[in-house]
Specification:
The protein is mainly α. It has helices at residues 9-33, 58-84.
């Protein structure tokens, strides 16, 4: 049974931003729990001195994917906050 109400574009974006941030947080928890935090070595912003790892191990893939996903969480939150105001 449906109520017939549709979500506005803002509400859809808000739910997407919330879900995305939760996934990024949980991925960060997994990163820490799996001891993959040093998967790219001591090199920031590169990964073992490379922009894209050429022969990555599993822990390198875990950290590198989190590095790629985490910066996208911030703009979603800022856009959401801007839409509320």
């Amino acid at each position: 049974m449906t109520s017939g109400k549709k979500l506005s574009a803002f509400a859809k974006f808000a739910w997407f931003a919330l879900a995305y941030n939760i996934v990024v947080i949980l991925w960060g928890v997994f990163l820490r729990a799996s001891y993959s935090g040093d998967g790219c070595g001591q090199h920031w912003i590169t990964c073992h001195g490379e922009a894209v790892p050429s022969a990555p191990e599993l822990k390198t893939l875990i950290e590198f994917s989190h590095r790629g996903a985490a910066p996208n969480a911030g703009p979603g939150g800022v856009n959401f906050a801007g839409g509320v105001v």
